[in-house]
## 1
Amino acid sequence: MTDLNKAVASIQISGIRKFADLVTQYNDVLSLTIGQPHFPTPKHIKDAAIQAITEGHTSYTSNRGLPSLRQAVSAYYGAKSGVVYDAQTEILVTVGATHALDISLRALLAPGDEVVIPAPAYPGYEPLVRLAQGTVRYVDTATTRFKLTPAQLQTAITPRTKVVVLASPVNPTGVAYTKDELSALAAILAKTDVYVISDEIYSELQFDEQHTSFATFAALRERTVVIQGLSKSHSMTGWRIGFTLAPKKLTDEMVKVLQYSVSCASSISQHAALEALVGGGDDSAIMRAQYAQNRDMVVEALDQMNLPLVKPAGAFYAFPDIRPLQMTSQTFAMRLLDEARVAVVPGDAFSEYGEGFVRLSYACEPVLLQAGLQRLDDFVKKCHSS
Ligand code: PLP
């Protein structure tokens, strides 16, 4: 027993991290575990950071973030979604999307409040809910092609439900909701008083259809927090810049949490972020094109291996079903690493509803991906024949 905070003590180290650590013990591993673009941060963004240092922009900024950056956030996402958030009152600059999720949950939840999360899900959500004293209610989407259906949402909502966390495109499955699908979920939520946290961190990496922001649903605007950031769209994971776009009433609460937890995001990163949004509108196009090609390569390869797959529509993940090989996701990932020197993430890292699947990241050079898929193919053949 511990005399320390029980909510913290109950939190496990992420299954992704555990596996990534294990990988370092092997030589010659092709890692398909990476959760970030393999492209470097664009040069014009790096130059803007250097310039910010040279010019002495190294002090605290406003808690909410540089006014010029908030203005740029408003314009950038407003142009994409068609919904404009006020730079003064409705936008916060956070320390990555993780921090944006944290301040949203902490501002919204009271002890015992339930948070509905379609699963398999990004492993960051559950610990943040618990730290905010909420309770997670996962909804199994493994049987509904990894998308929450209106019927499932309706059933999951109880009098204790405070928030639904929706993501599109989804980590770890790569699926993305269509506008009609989101609209059907919004129609159900409109009849409740449940809030929506819409994690749109992969919005720029959606391949086939235009991304739909949950902000589009006007009836829910007062109860929606959009989570955004530059980690994926501009390959800036280490710069730690995220955003919340939410109504004033909520933003005024979230900024209190932000103020007393971090004061503000890094001033240097904020200047770089301003350049990313003002001068780097097309930065994600090259990644999107590359990852769409990589996606096609993965879909074809897994099809030939007879591993069932829901075709990813965005991000840079595929989540094949490994149940035909009759082993757990942990055993599969361990054996693949041991016997074929390819690293993937076991599906149970994304809640119990990810069991029977593995996450394969294709955020890498096509040659590396091809080599990894070849090794995977050899391994699958070997499993079938033994
Ligand atoms: N949300 C999802 C779905 C993610 O996959 C990630 C990172 O992998 C995050 C949020 C966190 O993003 P950031 O690095 O900006 O904190």
Note: The mean pLDDT is 96.
## 2
Amino acid sequence: MKASDIRQKFLQFFAAQGHQVVPSSPLVPAGDPTLLFTNAGMVQFKDVFLGKEKRSYSRAVTVQKCMRAGGKHNDLDQVGRTARHQTFFEMLGNFSFGDYFKRDAIDYAWRFLTGELGLDPAKLWITVFETDDEAYRLWQEVAGVPSDRIVRMGEKDNFWSMGDTGPCGPSSEIFVDRGEEYACGPQCGLGQCDCDRIQEIWNLVFMQYNRDETGTLTPLPRPSIDTGMGLERIAAYLQGVDSNFETDLIFPLIRTLEDMTGVSYDPGPEGMPFRVIADHIRAITFLLAEGVSFSNEGRGYVMRRILRRAMRYGRLLGFESPFLYQLVPVVGEIMGDAYPEVTNGQTVIQELVKNEENRFLATLSAGMRVLAQKLESLQPGAVLSGEDAFQLYDTFGFPLDLTRDVADEHQVRVDEAQFEVLMQEQRERARQNRGKTVQHLPAPGPTTFWGYETLELDNEPI
Ligand code: ATP
Ligand code: MG
Ligand code: MG
Ligand code: MG
């Protein structure tokens, strides 16, 4: 089943159950400075759930563009390592604003998966919050799931809150067992490991309490439903491929990279550069299409770091000149029908990507030489000092994760604690300098110096 058919089926199924089809909101959340990127379908409905905003409908269905890089949800480090994480992905979601609750949410999800998509019920597993007896019972009653396939889990996995106060409640997740051949070992199992065999596909959140400042939970008069299913994950399962990266949503990018490099894709660890690049160019293309620009702070800084990371993996495939920009039209071919913004802006997006690639290449090669020299003098198991990592950052614009990745390959650890201390000192200096009046600013002009890419996001593990 093509991904575009899954999107359609999802929207149609829930529309037929009285849900308003609402378009995806932008990746840059409107009027929400607390959030770097839209990371779930519910983001555009936050105020509706909070009762601050009224809509003409009480049920909605969306296919939402999401980004999980930077901020509270940051999957950047997982990308390419697991079969199931990207930074950019699409989330299919159905929502009830004080309308239906647990019973119907469970019934709809189950009917969609086993009916519309034809999933074998024997392959599905369910988790519920440890004390949510109601959900535990409903899965058996409504969906006929045997009790030995329903696992009770703790707060970390199965309790959701919007913030420290406000709506919250237990969640229930649907997992699919992809088969013995994916097992990570003898202990492999739901709640036992976090491997890709029994994979989470759909999260149903039952918003049923309000949490006040003292932490007390009071039942909401009209509980709500918020759900999210990863499109790439369900597509991977239905298309019978090993990972999200091999679905029709991403694989054409990997194919193009194969053509460009003459290197064949390896679905194992060796294929990591292909997967990282394919993910990152999707993220960059969508962000640029929304008007985010490369910069030294905020969202533009996250995007810059994503591009640099993609380029660094590009080097492993032999790219020494700009190449990412050539993938932009491929993103357009795959995604343009559903998201016209990526094809409409294509020429400009390509130009912006290419410029940024050129900019980074100049410093990258200089920095790589310095890092290689430093690593040469270290034995496997040794530690690269925080000063060295900081110098690479400060002088060559090397984000810590890049240094960490390269050091990893030499089995060298980076003293990140010391790096952090030096970063903190630099931030402090910057803060103090901000207070001073600068009399004679140097005239702005071309510069190849890349230092002082500081700022807010540096303490995030991106
Ligand atoms: P996981 O435990 O696998 O990291 P999650 O619990 O963090 O997933 P949720 O926050 O529950 O994910 O999001 C709802 C759904 O969105 C998930 O069930 C999954 O199908 C999908 N999803 C979440 N993160 C990603 C990602 N980084 N890439 C692709 N799909 C994702
Ligand atoms: Mg996660
Ligand atoms: Mg999870
Ligand atoms: Mg989840």
Note: The first helix runs from residue 3 to 16.
